[in-house]
Design brief:
Elements (H helix, E strand, L loop, with lengths): L2 E5 L3 H13 L3 E5 L2 H10 L4 E4 L8 H11 L4 E5 L4 H9 L4 E4 L4 H14 L6 E4 L2 E4 L4 E4 L2 E3 L3 H12 L4 E2 L1 H8 L9 H15 L9 E4 L3 E4 L2
Parallel strand pairs: 1-2, 1-3, 3-4, 4-5
Antiparallel strand pairs: 6-7, 7-8, 8-9, 10-12, 11-12
Helix pairs in contact: 2-3, 6-8
């Protein structure tokens, strides 16, 4: 599962883009300034950086220069500065692509996938306890046999995997799956969808080992 660092100081963009990319199977971290970005880059490894030029402190050009001095992590500038100078300056210092705001999330997703493929960093298959999820093909296998999930069940599974190792609340799950559900999704229907998903991926749905219930808090996948 590819890890993305989003360096952006607009909370609206951060919230919406994080939610969208997580729903597509990515692990997303976000910071709003140069100092926090550089600190995080010394502690964690990311597959790609989405980088704004105008930040809470510092600027994206300085962050890009630091990233490229550390290694070959690909960078996509995501910024309102769409003038020719900004584009050329970003590409000259090693940025791998550039997209101007406002942008369509699907277009950015396409650019992310293209850059990851070009840099040999595509990790499209996620595995957990005999379950394989190919996010490029939208394919789910259990012990090598295909499992057929509804669109909402697949989205729910991706949300769980994107939050692997952490407790995710029922309210958060409702927020994540709301926009693709044709019918009203409430707490009761969420319980039904989790039950259906468990029946398809768990060896024993009555004693789940993949999607675990954390009583009073929500659910957790993995350690």
């Amino acid at each position: 599962m590819n890890r993305i660092l989003l360096v952006e100081d607009d909370p609206f963009i951060v919230n919406n883009l994080t939610e969208f990319l997580q729903s597509e199977g990515y692990i997303v971290s976000a910071v709003n300034g140069q100092k926090d970005a550089l600190m995080l880059l010394k502690q964690e490894v990311y597959d790609i950086i989405l980088l704004d030029i105008s930040l809470k402190d510092g600027n994206g050009f300085a962050v890009c220069k630091a990233i490229k001095s550390m290694g070959d992590t690909p960078v996509i500038f995501v910024t309102a500065s769409g003038d020719e100078f900004s584009v050329v300056a970003g590409l000259d210092m090693g940025a791998d692509d550039y997209i101007s705001k406002p942008f369509r999330p699907r277009e950015l997703l396409s650019r992310i996938k293209s850059v990851l493929r070009r840099c040999g960093k595509v990790q499209s298959v996620i595995e957990i306890e005999g379950i394989q999820v190919d996010t490029e093909k939208g394919l789910v296998l259990k012990q090598g046999n295909e499992i057929f999930l509804s669109a909402l069940e697949y989205r729910l599974l991706l949300v769980f995997l994107s939050n692997r190792g952490t407790v995710i609340s029922r309210n958060k799950l409702l927020e994540e799956i709301w926009d693709i559900a044709g019918d009203f999704v409430n707490d009761n229907t969420l319980t039904v969808y989790v039950k259906r998903l468990r029946e398809k991926i768990e060896d024993n749905p009555q004693e789940p080992t993949i999607i675990k219930t954390v009583r009073g808090l929500g659910y957790k996948v993995g350690n």
